[in-house]
Amino acid sequence: MSDNKKNLEQISSSLAKLFILDAFNKHNVSSEHRRQLSDDEKQQLKALVGNLQNQVNEFLEKQNQPKIAKASKTPEPPKNTTLRDMLKNRKKS
């Protein structure tokens, strides 16, 4: 499970880099024209990304919980019984 998570994070990271480079190329922004981020801005971005990752993980866990709960329930017998079955049950009682 953790291998899948690491693989997913790696794919997400490479896709994000690809989208950013594509946006720079689309608007003719070269590395000389990009402004360097200050340490404070870098920390804010890291905190933002960490917060978003936590929110995504919580969302995914919530989505997986109902599936597990539904799978563990035992199926109930159908409540729609025929009149014949109801009479047989009444006679047995």
From TrEMBL:
Question: What's the protein called, per UniProt?
Answer: Spore coat protein
Which segments carry the region annotation Disordered?
A: 62-93
Q: Which organism is it from?
A: Anoxybacteroides rupiense
